[in-house]
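Lab notebook: predicted structure, single chain.

Context: the supervisor wants predicted structures on file for every construct in the current expression panel, including those that have not yet been purified. This is the next one on the list. No modifications to the sequence; it matches the entry in the shared construct table.
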Amino acid sequence: MEYQLKINGQTRAVEAEPGTPLLWVIRDELNLTGTKFGCGIASCGACTIHLNGTPIRSCQFAVEHATGAEITTIEGLNDPVAKAVQQAWLEKDVVQCGYCQSGQIMSAVGLLSQNRTPTDNDIDTYMSGNACRCATYVRIKDAIKLASQKLEA
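Prediction complete. Output recorded below exactly as produced.
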């Protein structure tokens, strides 16, 4: 079946069976491989994208439910919040292996888009669905705080 998806500001036609996880359409049909497969059960956050500005787990979201929505992947992040997060990630040297980082960044942008001055508890709560095998959680939190400061400046 053909679906029209608005992804990273462009409308793209894709062929997929109903019920196909959006993750596989993004990676396999659109070749946007920054969004990662981690667990397949929406527990690790590696597949996080934004749907109408809200972070969701694309491994458990069917393609047919994404038609008419604004989809943003890590490749399409370019607003001031995203730029502050990306810069903070570099300055705090967050990345170790890097596998989870697109999902971490997508979630961090979602948090700071809703709450420009999150507390430690806000960060812990919001980011709790994102797993990092390298355990860079302290650097992730520091980067979110730095991005918040950059946005407030």
